Amino acid sequence: MANMRRVGTSVAGAVAVAAVGLKVARSPQWQFARLGGWSIASPSAAGWATDFLNAAYFRRPRGSREVDDLRLAFTVLTTYWHQLGRPLHGLDVAQFHRAFGVERFLDGTQSARATLDRAQILEGAASLLGDWFPAAYPDDARRGWGIAFESESDKAAYVPEQRLRSARLGPLTPPVAPGKEQTWHTYAPVEVADGHAALAALALPETWPDYASEIGRFTPLRSGGIDGQTFEIEVVGHPTSRTPVFLRAYVTVTRAVTSADPDALTAYVAELNDGMARFGRDEPAPVPDDAELLLGVDLTTHEGHFLGNARNRLLLYNRQGRSYLRAAGTWDPLRWDLAQLYQRVGYAAQHAIWGATVPEESMLHQLADRVG
To answer: Quick one: DSSP state of residue 1?
Structure first.
């Protein structure tokens, strides 16, 4: 009988531990914590991958770097992940050190020690990935999804769902609070020289990593076009030479409207502007009354996003003979833990990525520069 009681106690204890573990795994804090870093790299690779990005961009003096140097460095990492066919591991640092270590640590003549200039990144990438890489990176026909491909046929054969398998994609989390309790915000517009070129670019999700800023990048995870596309967002909070914080989140396009459906476009503008007028606090209309909307895209968050239940709209419109990109966001009141994180990291990153103040930090500026 005593043995049976001990067995019963052990079983009950195991069930209790399992229940607590399940509760923790389902908690919002855990769901957020598990989305740190990158889906292409295991935690054991975070240190050397971060050091590589630091050397290629963040540690270099601002006057001696370009945002495309950071995009190049990310492309090296992502292309290596694609070649390996698995997430990057801690032991992969040996290959990286052979390709980039001498230039980073010993050679201080071409660039400061612990840094890499663009020529050194390309030279190391040719050693690591293949001598075809330096010519493939600037070739639009051989670059997509943040990867450089040896040939156009290799690019055509790529299946973006390969990255989705490691994405830890939770359920969609659109805003659910009453409108008056939500935050409604319209970001400043960014002018783009050619609205139709911007429209064509946005319609090709595989090109979105080409518009990454120094603090944010969007990588598509599904085959096909923009409607229904899911993006992995990599956000850099506190981008300094010593303490960049890499956060990961996911959004899916739950609505996309263009001039191909004028009625849907008109209804979209009316609904968005009305909501901002009723619930925004002295916020301007996302689409001005005298503007012609070319594209409206709703990006809805997934579980674990640092904005919680949220939806962001990416807008492209013509006004008075000029074209503009703009974002307008809506999100529920933040939980206390997310509110703290948002104040420390999320607020600055969110406004910088979608804003118009610092071109190096704004994805909209980077897109405008690319298509301009």
So the answer is: -
Length of the chain: 372
> Mean pLDDT over residues 132-151, rounded?
98
Cα(311)–Cα(271) distance, rounded to whole angstroms? 14
DSSP string for residues in 300-345: EEBTT-TT-SEEEEEEEEEETTEEEEEEEEEEPPPPHHHHHHIIII
- In sequence order, what E strands does the chain have? 143-144, 147-148, 183-186, 190-192, 216-220, 230-237, 245-258, 291-301, 310-319, 322-331
**For residue 105, which amino acid is it?**
F
Selected residue with higher pLDDT from 240 and 332 = 332
Residue-wise pLDDT for 241-293, tens only, equals: 455 677 889 999 999 999 899 999 999 999 999 999 999 999 999 999 999 99
Whole-angstrom Cα distance, residue 276 to residue 194? Answer: 27
Closest CA to 96 of 38, 45, 159: 45
pLDDT band at 353 (very low <50, low <70, confident <90, very high): confident
Six token digits for residue 282: 């002295």
CB half-sphere exposure, 329, CA atoms < 13 A? 18
**Which two tokens mark 335?**
């939980």
Residue 165 DSSP symbol: T
- Give the residue carrying structure tokens 């001005």: 288
Single-letter residue type at 172? L
- Full DSSP string of 185-227: EEPPPEEES-HHHHHHHHT-GGGGGGG--SSEEEEE-SSS-ST
Those residues whose C-beta lies under 8 Å from the C-beta of residue 27, and which sit 6 or more positions away, are none
Secondary structure (3-state) at 370: helix
Beta-carbon count within 10 A of 329 CB = 21
